[in-house]
Specification:
six-stranded mixed beta sheet, alpha/beta, 2 domains, four-stranded antiparallel beta sheet, elongated, single chain, about 300 residues, Rossmann fold
Length: about 300
């Protein structure tokens, strides 16, 4: 099956700063993908490239097998909910649904109407008078009612209180189940990712740190605790992701598919949060010098 997002050597430069560098990955279809990283890691840049809002400086990106935003047919395949859930404050909820129907050839009016009714929203109420949670739910409704193949969400719940965040995530997962959506979901809140995501992408320092199925990543990462030692002395098949030390003890997070047989180590599982923080806290390796292939416009 075609990857929903595929990037090869992808980079985006603003002035002298690379917001995203040499990114190569494939996002499989039918997954809920968590995209995580610190501020400035390149998450929003990657999502903006996938939506076709900006063009790459180097490399290539395809979405659902095509060039992002390359015409009405391609645009119809992708739903997008931006970080600030932009709506028209002077328009009513009903106006937004009518606008969605005008702009999207695959618009599902009944789906949108049922969601608004179930959420207890008054169709006559203007968007500018909605709470943050209600605005997020309306933006999600607009995103899924166009019946996209891929739904992209850029930190849509970052400003919501816990109750509104839970309701938003519940609505998202209902849509995933009902419509068999592929989702790429950017968030700072690892707890949301643990409950919903089955694939993970971690960015740090504008570069890809790790990408893969969440279950496989958790199965191949381990916490080792034992007497203080130099991580460089570990077997070659145990890749050290992060290390911390006290005077007498070392705690390492390692990636390996082989059994850990050294009896000096106490081996324990890592959580998704442990894994994400380990990769975010570790500086990415320096890129090898290479010429930049500028996109001709």
């Amino acid at each position: 099956m075609t990857a929903v997002v595929a990037a090869q050597g992808l980079g985006k430069k603003y002035g002298r700063r690379w917001a995203l560098s040499d990114l190569t990955l494939e996002v499989p279809a039918g997954r809920v993908v968590g995209l995580v990283g610190p501020n400035g890691a390149g998450k929003t840049t990657l999502l903006s490239l996938a939506c076709g809002q900006i063009a790459p400086t180097s490399g290539t990106i395809t979405v659902l097998g095509g060039t992002p935003a390359a015409g009405p047919a391609q645009l119809a395949k992708v739903g997008y909910v931006a970080q600030d859930t932009p709506l028209y404050p002077g328009l009513s909820i009903a106006d937004h649904l009518r606008l969605g129907a005008r702009l999207n050839p695959t618009w599902d009016h009944e789906l949108a109407r049922r969601r608004v009714e179930r959420l207890g929203l008054d169709p006559a109420r203007r968007a500018g008078r909605l709470s943050g949670g209600q605005r997020a739910q309306l933006a999600l409704t607009l995103g899924i009612a166009k019946r996209p193949e891929l739904l992209i969400l850029d930190e849509p719940v970052s400003a919501l209180d816990p109750l509104a965040r839970r309701e938003f995530m519940r609505g998202l997962m209902e849509a995933v189940a009902d419509q068999e959506l592929s989702v790429v979901f950017s968030s700072h809140l690892v707890s949301d990712l643990e409950r919903t995501c089955d694939h993970l992408i971690v960015l740090a320092g504008s570069r890809l740190r790790i990408s893969g199925d969440a279950e496989e990543l958790l199965a191949t990462h381990h916490r080792l605790t034992g007497p203080r030692r130099d991580p460089g002395r570990l077997p070659a098949d145990q890749h050290v992701v992060s290390a911390s030390h006290t005077d007498r003890q070392s705690t390492l997070i390692v990636r390996t598919t082989a059994p850990i047989l050294d009896p000096a180590w106490t081996v324990s599982q890592v959580s998704l949060e442990d894994l994400v923080l380990a990769y975010m806290d570790t500086p990415p390796p320096a890129a090898a010098p290479r010429p930049v292939l500028e996109i001709q416009r």
